[in-house]
Amino acid sequence: MRYLADAAALxxxxxxxxxxxxxxxxxxxxxxxxxxxAFRFALTDEGAEAADxxxxxxxxxxxxxxxGRAFVAEREQGLLDGLVLAPCDRSAIWLGKLLAxxxxxxxxxxxxxxxxxxxxxxxxxxxxxxAVLLADIGICAVGTLLAAMAVAGRARxxxxxxxxxxxxxxxxxxGVGATVAADPGRYLGFLALYDIIxxxxxxxxxxxxxxx
Amino acid sequence: MIRAQSLxxxxxxxxxxxRVDLEIPNGAFVVVTGPNGSGKTTLLRLCAGLAAPTGGRLxxxxxxxxxxxxxxxPLVYRELTALENLELYGRLYRVPERRxxxxxxxxxxxxxxxxxxxxxxxxRGMLQRLALCRTLxxxxxxxxxxxxxxxxxxxxxxxxxxxxxELGPGRTVVVATHDPARVEPLATGRLTFA
Lengths: 212, 194
Known about the structure:
The complex is a heterodimer of chains A (about 210) and B (about 190). By secondary structure, chain A is mainly alpha-helical. Chain A has helices at about 1-20, 25-40, 50-70, 70-75, 80-85, 90-120, 125-150, 155-180, 185-210. In chain A, helix 2 (about 25-40) packs antiparallel against helix 3 (about 50-70) and helix 6 (about 90-120) packs antiparallel against helix 9 (about 185-210). The radius of gyration of chain A is 17 Å and the shape is globular. Chain B is built from six helices and eight strands.
């Protein structure tokens, strides 16, 4: 229970920082809407069926924007030391960041998904919505770990996309599969498995990423 | 409390600490002095577990919950108020009677009036006072203070003098400072880096 209380306190702090700073969520919203508008004009009527795939590209890149901001306060003010010194389990820092980033991503999608349905005249079914939720969890689980790794490096703006995008390919594969397949069960299972594997990996290795 | 044998630390090709041996017993008050770049901060960061030695052994016989570290950065979120920052650390350190303890420290360091102001609006001296509140919040048994008098005005420095003098027995304090005379009356040992 204490572990969850620590993660909740850290997530609450990130939400409060966003409420005060209003930097991450508005950027993510603007970015995803701009991307969907660009895709709408880029696709001809014949290519409209590619839109399902482009939705997933938009989600991954929007998440990348949020992940790039995940550790900005800690980096700019040297605050990671303060969190590392605290007697809580260090993976609670990862879980707190994951929850906050997930909240921003879901909030962006609350606007982006209806916009996608409107622009592409597409009906988003329950399978797609569940796939988006599973993908969000996987993206934030692996992305938070990679964001912490990137923040310690010098070329952090380059490092995060370079590390994250290859690992996001299975999410795009699973997500597109769940969106277009008549029976999305197999793809949803694949996304859930991805979430479990990468959440365990990130949870277990985060301590080594934030300590020297 | 702290024991180092042949403790070394390198940053790339630069050797910052070179085979340092030291023993700091429980209840000691050790002043660390030396010129800029001599390794004072590195020693404190190693003791806090914020950096790993590249050679030798270092034993620090306290849990993280018993360690109070004041570094060059105040380690407070600029967008949060003084109260919110201390609330966050109070939760993470599981400080008993958290609100009372926070209120007492803010009063003592003259920050009570500004408790609902964002830390980002604080002067450097006020930030240092807030950092001291954060460091002392969980009543640590080992205090690692890196230039604690930095940016403090006369009143702030006097408050810290009083706080250090009133720490009581059983506390181990390691202070890195360029002004050793300030803490000399409390010191039981001195470590000088060349």
